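Summarise what follows for lecture notes:
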Amino acid sequence: MSTTPKPIALPVTAVTCLEDRAHIERAAVLDLEAGVQRLRLGPVSALAVDRTLHAELAADHPATVLDVRIVRDWTPPGPPSSTDDDSTPRQRLRTLEEERLALERRRDRLHSRLDLLGRLAADLLREIGEGAGSGECEGSRWARELDRVDDERDAYGEQLRVVDARLAALAAERQELQRAVDLFEGEPPELVGHVELTVESAVAGRVGLRLSHLTPCALWRPAYRAVLDGDSLTLETDAMVWQRTGEDWSDVRLTLSTARSALATDPPRLGEDRLTLKDRSAAERRTVDVELREEEIGGLGPTPVLGLPGVDDGGETRVLHSPSPVSVPGDGRAHRVPLSAFSTAASSEYACSPELSPLVTQVVRGDNLSGHALLAGPVDLVRGSGFSGRGTLDFTAPGAPVELAFGSRDDHRVVRRAEESRDLAGITQRTVVTRTVRLHLSRFSAPGDHDERVVVLRERIPVSEISSVEVRLRQDACSPAPDLVDAEGVVRWDVPLPPGSRRTVTLVYELSAKGTVVGL
């Protein structure tokens, strides 16, 4: 069996990004020989899940995949590509290295000068010996030249001693710095994976290969950008993609899915729920125990989750596609990928629920014309003055209304006051609780503001589920009369507010309970 020594490139061609992982597809063209051979492909991400590795060859070639596996090995890191972003210790090391080279060159020059002075002193002593032997006597000249040679040798010797001392100090400092750099900035060897593919081919030729596997350390979340321009709302759908799989995705077909493959094989645990019956006491038969509870009005889609830790898809797997190839570096940072955009006619109102918040908020509504479901996610809000804040979009089915809050109005103020009185009817022994809610609205307008603005106020009244407790809205005492009261107990007023005006809205309702009712 022959084995190719050089790895064959196996680039990423398509990615399906899931909630917490990614399905990677790769493609390559192989030059096969007749017989059985082992090919080395890659490099690929070392995080690839081995059991999900799948390889298949094109059907137009008589070849069969016998085995496919991932082999991982440690590869030392290569030299740094640039020194501009080096840390301070590394820059100091580079400075010390340059100084060391300069001092070594100076030391070599000093050694050469001292050797030359040594030879000069030897020649001078030989000349003195020969001159004294021949009867010459130039003692003053000989003494002057010997003193000059000795002075120069002492001066250069002192310089050499200083250079050697500095070189020793540099060596100690470089050793300490190198130890610190190796300890805190040393890059460990990189774990690199390769695919070993064993194939059997009846004839030699070129054949296409498609390989796929799962990889962790990749995820995506939906994000939106809403632009309000008069009566038109433009909503752009994007995907925020993070990946740190150890390799870059360059010009890949990106698919985004809400499928949770990790939960597909884990059935829910069923626990016991025991129901027991017991006879009521005489006191319990004579009384009806009631209580007030808060219940959120149900709507389309799941309940919003604070912080959006997952992808809310309405309980059904959703698949979105990027319209063009994208590139996502493997740096672990968020990268925005455009998916779709649409414009729709928008209706706007200024709404306030004083029981929840005293702010008057501009609420914009429009239809979802994107052709796909809008998953829950954050929304960047943009209007005529530019970026105005960030909100949250709930799950919205195709064609369903989209509701966005574009911030509060600083020139509006709402004050809520609530009163309660309790009365007991002597004949019927019924308890009557009367609650009065007063809402004071005021508008502070600029001098040039002359338009009238309608503020939609919403208050709520209890809704009884038993006949022993009755809830009655006193229309005669409400000022002004409500414009709408729905089945969930939400009372609505459309209050017109001219510039600089003030209005007071009064809501009065009664809770009437029989004498056998307790807990009200």
